[in-house]
Amino acid sequence: MNHDFDVISAARNWRTDAVDTATPDQIISSVYSSDVLTLEQLKARLSKPTFKSLQATLERGATLDPSIADTVALAMKTWAMEKGATHYTHWFHPLTGATAEKHDSFVSPNGDGSAIAAFSGKELIQAEPDASSFPSGGLRATFEARGYTAWDASSPAFIMRHANGATLCIPTAFASWTGEALDTKTPLLRSVEALNKAVTPALKLFGASEGTRVSSTLGAEQEYFLIAEEYYYRRPDLVMTGRTLFGAQPPRGQELEDHYFGAIPDRVLSFMTDAEQQLYALGIPVKTRHNEVAPGQFEIAPIFEDSNIAADHQQLTMQVLRNTARKYGLVALLHEKPFAGVNGSGKHCNWSMSTNAGENLLEPGDTPHENLQFLFFTSAVIKAVDEHQDLLRISVASASNDHRLGANEAPPAIISIFLGSELSDIFDRLESGQGGRGAEAGLLGLGTSVLPPLPRHAGDRNRTSPFAFTGNKFEFRAAGSSQSISFPITVLNTIVADAVSALAAELKAKLDAGTDLDTAVAEIVKATYSAHKRIVFNGDGYSDEWHQEAEHGRKLLNLRTTLDAVHHLTDAKNGALFEKFKVLSDRELAARQEIMYDIYFKTVNIEGETTEYMARTMILPAAVKYLSELHAAGGSKAVRGVAAEVEAAADELFDAVQALSAQNAATGGDEVHEKAHHMRDQVLPAMSAVRKAADKLEKVVAEQHWPLPTYRQMLFVK
């Protein structure tokens, strides 16, 4: 076994015993990115001309030179085999929302019966998976199966380890034979380039150098639940759908508010440590771990990276969490709402823009009211979110996220921006012509001399806002915990590129007319904020008053369900936007809409049939068996009373199951759009009626007869 793997093994069994010779700092330094083919690794293995050619692609966006592929492939294969890899795979992001891989061996037979390890530039650059077996929205059919994966040189190759070896994973894009994007990565990469092309001309108006490039940056928080593996396999609903379709509320949920930031249980902490070490080896900069609000809920969060790298890393994070949990007798649940009555799980996307010199364009500095560049780009974000609130809502739309949005720290379906008191005051003053700075941060006194005064932010936090400014970035809180972040970030990049392009054109026109920079920017910021301030809301996003004001006073969209939202994806303005920036063609956009309808229909259909199956084969038989036992026990008042309760709930459940069965058998129409609406309007309400009756039964059937692990067990037994 090689030294690198020894280090990783040691890190995964991190101990503080006296016998350990390596410090945690040494372990982290040795492990971090040890399973990633970094630029430094490539530089050491490539000739100077080859490395410079590759570097031009990575750092300046130059077209990839295919002639260097064989050299890079040899270096990649040698490095991977030194790490213990026997196979390689093109690792890509199809429109399932997950990742895909097909493993090929490095072994290449010789004619003399021997074999060598081989990996060519052609194999690096391109592979040919079956495109018809992935969702394509009509872009591919079974008789049109050809698709291509293409090496994404901007994302480093990495090693994925398993119990008996390792695989070289090569990040790739996935496209059809006719050239359409069949993945989430290709539009994301296009949107990154669109943002760069829009923002760099604007920066030059502020004096930026010719070599400046801009990319979006992202840190994606990941919330998840952990339950004991034994309970998971006894719950067909969790296995089949990822969420509990039944479950009476326990006497205690999250009411005591004692789980958030509480002491992490030992088994969970061991799991977290193991997962973190694997993520470190993959170069994923995880920073934070803690208990979340709901019992059994936790969070892991990284620091910022370029958004396309962050999207890759987010998919890997979900995979590592799922795989590692099983080693500890746990199951990681990434569904947005695995348990009713407690907080759901999100994936908060902390988004900003940065230059290749490391300048954060949304950093206000110590005097944001004097930071013209910051105010310019922030007003562009405000404009973008207001004009394209529909796209932001669509980007997080799914059947599973519909259960989460609108309560328990999840933002409402109405998109709005939280700026905080200081930034709102600055924009309000600019709009009114006052200028200057109003709200001050100052120091927060804690009332005792033994505690130091703390710097107080000028604005509070707002947990109900779907899009909140949080100091030097915007936090898009509406993304769901199980989804890929690629499409939400593609949308964000594109709509901000559009807004910046428009404002930069205005600014250039003013400067060309002789207006000085300060005055021109102030005029543009004032006009932009005045036109789009309806999207800014710093209050309680859950209140009925806000919903009334948003819909009727401010005329903001309230797209409550996925089907309300997805309908707008192919609106003319959206097609024109994506076409303008070459992010998605009309055909690619229509395909994604079709896939969203299809996935919604199939998700709810699976849930409906699972609900019926569990009610018929598990819950009703348990109720009947318990009733038989009660009837055999005699005719006391208590027995008669309990039997009456059980019988009434069982009859209610039986009738509800019959109604659900009828809706499951119906289709609502032949088109997937009609089927999806049937699921929302008929099947989901029928499922709710079944659950209501079943949850009543859970509260009156003897525990030894109840066939399912309860919320009390799943949420609190760790």
Automatic annotation (TrEMBL):
GS beta-grasp domain boundaries: 86-179
GO MF terms held by the record: glutamine synthetase activity
Coiled-coil segments on the chain, per record: none
Domain annotation GS catalytic: ranges: 184-619
GO biological processes: glutamine biosynthetic process
**What protein family is recorded?**
Belongs to the glutamine synthetase family.
**Name recorded for this polypeptide:** Glutamine synthetase
Q: Which organism is it from?
A: Deinococcus grandis
Q: What high-level taxonomic lineage is stated for the organism?
A: Bacteria, Thermotogati, Deinococcota, Deinococci, Deinococcales
